[in-house]
């Protein structure tokens, strides 16, 4: 009688029994190396990164060539990010962005720029956008842009700068931020 099964008699069950020790050995090695973990409750939110928005607003007011507005942020919101960049278009335009995490844990960002609305929206958007309406907040018109499943974008012309709001936060938070921005005067450089 042959010692091995003929190849024609080997099947998926034989392969599964061969792989089980390999999978167990892989899990043991990954566990020893602390490269895997099991979390039955799913992911949990981590700490919000710390970002000094007050310092960023003051610095941008000194360094950028246009008026910067520092709105009074609602209670429970935390600044978590900031950046500066230039929008290419008919002319170079500086842009400053500060991001916030709302009390409900949603992201919203405030962008201020000298770029035109036509140049700023495509620069910020992650896909094609088109105007879907307008909101009247504090005597200012905010043009609302929508798109295929993308986050909403609100833009208002403050004459000396364009203010853009976007993020995953609900419209109520957009309204809070738009109201706060419209209520303040630009910072002194």
Walk me through the topology.
Layout: H1 12-32, H2 53-63, E1 78-87, E2 93-101, E3 107-113, H3 117-124, E4 129-137, E5 140-147, E6 153-157, E7 162-167, H4 171-182
Antiparallel strand pairs: 1-2, 2-3, 3-7, 4-5, 5-6, 6-7
Please describe what this structure looks like:
- This protein is an alpha+beta fold.
- The protein has four helices and seven strands; from the N terminus they run H-H-E-E-E-H-E-E-E-E-H.
- The protein has a domain at 53-182: 2-Layer Sandwich (Phosphorylase Kinase, domain 1), CATH 3.30.200.
- Helix content is 28%, strand content 29%.
- A hairpin with a 5-residue loop joins strand 2 and strand 3.
- It is elongated.
- The model has no long low-confidence stretch (mean pLDDT 88).
- The chain crosses the membrane at residues 15-33.
- Residues 70-90 are annotated as: Disordered.
- This is DUF4245 domain-containing protein.
- InterPro entries: DUF4245.
């Amino acid at each position: 009688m042959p010692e091995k099964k003929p190849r024609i008699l080997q099947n998926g069950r034989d392969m599964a029994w061969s792989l089980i020790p390999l999978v167990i050995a892989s899990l043991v090695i990954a566990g020893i190396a602390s490269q895997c973990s099991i979390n039955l409750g799913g992911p949990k939110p981590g700490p919000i990164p710390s970002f000094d928005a007050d310092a960023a607003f003051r610095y941008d007011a000194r360094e950028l060539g246009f008026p910067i507005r520092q709105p009074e942020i609602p209670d429970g919101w935390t600044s978590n990010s900031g950046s500066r960049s230039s929008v290419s278009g008919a002319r170079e335009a500086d842009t400053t962005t500060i991001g916030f995490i709302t009390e409900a844990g949603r992201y919203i960002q405030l962008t201020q720029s000298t770029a035109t609305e036509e140049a700023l929206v495509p620069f910020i958007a992650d896909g094609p956008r088109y105007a879907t309406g307008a909101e009247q907040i504090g005597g200012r018109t905010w043009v609302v842009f929508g798109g295929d499943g993308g986050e909403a974008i609100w833009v208002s012309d403050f004459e000396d700068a364009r203010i853009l709001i976007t993020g995953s936060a609900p419209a109520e938070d957009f309204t809070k931020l738009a109201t706060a921005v419209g209520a303040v005067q630009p910072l002194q450089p």
